[in-house]
């Protein structure tokens, strides 16, 4: 057996602490490298990438909306990570959330469903002096009580806007279904009923259409389904939607950007929401949902499986492909002629980069469309803040109101130009027959 004498120990003694110090430094360097990569700290802040056609309105908007041309600066330590922005939004929604006071309205639908929306009156006069209502469609499974909706509504009210917020069918807690269906990816029935109510209740009001995530798909599809749906609409804003459900669900099965994990989490939330209405979906005579469908629901690990076993059957679609194609706004959005602002974030882990070709192409072809792509923001995050703590009001809250204010002033001060632009737009659509594929 070989042993070390004292001389050998003295030889290695001074080297061992130095070796351990080197290992510690290497470990610290590795940890710092991982943190920098995961938090994307080396990424620079930039203004949004804006795609548009050179028109009098677009030039006016670029001058009137500083947030279109200024840097969006997220919180320094974590705000450049799309995952952390998305996770923070998902868990918290917003910080120091206000509690706007509204009135809940109930609308009976032709099929027996009971649609609900909350109405919030403006807290002051609008800067134009006009009566303007924001008709808002939240994201998947969301409603007016969600923190990000409350924050946006409170900010809009203070800027002189009345707000009407749709509660997705089946999304409100402790609100039973009165027909055997829930909201779907692109069903516009409840949103249309809310818009009709607002138009009838406030004959002098003009409308601003706003949709978040899934809500963005619904509002764009609603406006494009029928030209009459655009009556009295000043503009439309869509935030963080995916435009094409078929392509979006294909990307949701990929592990890139942990998208498959997000799919699992969203599917689990959707599963719980559906099962909370199990008795209504099974008990009503007109239901086409059976025990076998619910058994497949229990085993589902993706939104695609849930859509195939449950969601498509609410409207009688024969296949998942038919469901996704019919409910995607990509087949209707080219019919929208009012000013249309499409906003996405490049680091949104839920919306694949390939889907962003749709709004970019639309903005390149259509004179009424502006596509704004931020470098950071995640999915519906867009938090702002100095180093660590985000501000209660986010970049997207301020941007939507800033854009809408500019449109309202343009409409008031340039009615002749607006009418001419609308006629040019209609002529352009007839001449070119613009269509999109996704």
- Helix-and-strand structural type: alpha/beta
How are helices and strands ordered from N to C?
HHEHHEEEHEHEHEHHHHHHEHEHH
| Low-confidence region ranges | none
In whole angstroms, how far apart are the ends? 73 Å
Question: What this model shows, in words?
Answer:
With 438 residues, the chain is of the alpha/beta class. Helix content is 43%, strand content 12%. The chain is built from 16 helices and nine strands. It has a nine-stranded mixed beta sheet, sandwiched between helices. Helix 7 links the parallel strand 6 and strand 7 (233-239). Helix 3 crosses helix 15. The protein is globular, with a radius of gyration of 25 Å. The relative contact order is 0.16. The mean pLDDT is 89.
Features:
single chain, 438 residues, alpha/beta, 9-stranded mixed sheet, 16 helices, 43% helix, 12% strand, globular
Task: Describe the secondary-structure layout.
Elements: H1 6-12, H2 15-38, E1 49-51, H3 56-64, H4 82-92, E2 103-108, E3 114-120, E4 132-137, H5 147-158, E5 162-167, H6 189-201, E6 206-212, H7 214-225, E7 233-239, H8 245-251, H9 259-275, H10 278-283, H11 291-299, H12 303-309, H13 320-327, E8 340-345, H14 357-365, E9 369-374, H15 395-413, H16 415-432
Parallel strand pairs: 4-5, 4-6, 6-7, 7-8, 8-9
Antiparallel strand pairs: 1-9, 2-3, 3-5
Helix pairs in contact: 3-15
């Amino acid at each position: 057996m070989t042993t070390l004498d004292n001389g050998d120990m003295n030889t290695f003694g001074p080297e061992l602490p130095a070796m351990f110090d080197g290992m510690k430094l290497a470990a610290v360097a590795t940890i710092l490298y991982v943190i920098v990569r995961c938090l994307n700290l080396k990424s620079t802040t930039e203004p949004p990438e804006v795609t548009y056609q050179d028109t009098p309105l677009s030039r006016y908007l670029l001058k009137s909306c500083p947030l279109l041309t200024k840097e969006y600066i997220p919180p320094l330590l974590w705000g450049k990570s799309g995952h952390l922005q998305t996770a923070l939004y998902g868990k918290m929604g917003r910080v120091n959330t206000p509690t706007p006071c509204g009135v809940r309205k109930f609308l009976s639908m032709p099929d027996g469903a009971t649609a609900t929306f909350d109405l919030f009156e403006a807290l002051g006069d609008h800067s134009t002096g006009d009566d303007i209502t924001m008709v808002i469609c939240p994201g998947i499974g969301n409603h007016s009580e969600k923190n990000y909706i409350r924050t946006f509504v409170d900010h809009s009210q203070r800027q002189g806007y009345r707000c009407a917020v749709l509660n997705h069918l089946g999304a409100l807690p402790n609100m039973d279904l009165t027909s055997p269906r829930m909201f779907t990816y692109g069903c516009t029935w409840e949103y249309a009923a809310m818009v009709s109510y607002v138009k009838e209740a406030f004959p002098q009001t003009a409308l601003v259409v706003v949709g978040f995530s899934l809500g963005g798909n619904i509002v764009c599809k609603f406006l494009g389904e029928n030209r009459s749906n655009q009556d009295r609409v000043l503009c439309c804003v869509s935030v963080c939607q995916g435009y094409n459900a078929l392509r979006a669900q294909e990307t949701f099965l990929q592990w890139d950007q942990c998208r498959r994990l997000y799919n699992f989490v969203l599917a689990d939330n959707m599963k719980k929401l559906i099962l909370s209405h199990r008795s209504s979906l099974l008990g009503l005579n007109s239901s086409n949902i059976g025990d076998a469908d619910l058994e497949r629901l229990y085993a589902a690990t993706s939104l695609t499986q849930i859509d195939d076993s449950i969601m498509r059957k609410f409207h009688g679609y024969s296949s998942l492909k038919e469901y996704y194609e019919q409910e995607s706004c990509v087949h209707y959005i080219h019919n929208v002629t009012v000013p249309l602002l499409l906003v996405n974030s490049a680091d949104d882990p839920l919306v694949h980069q390939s889907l962003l070709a749709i709004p970019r192409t639309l903005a390149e072809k259509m004179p009424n469309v502006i596509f704004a792509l931020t470098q950071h923001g995640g999915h519906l995050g867009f938090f702002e803040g100095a180093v660590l703590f985000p501000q209660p009001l986010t970049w997207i809250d301020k941007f939507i109101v800033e854009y809408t204010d500019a449109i309202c002033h343009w409409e008031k001060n340039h009615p002749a130009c607006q009418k001419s632009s609308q006629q040019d737009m209609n002529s352009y659509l007839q001449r070119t027959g613009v269509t999109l594929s996704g």
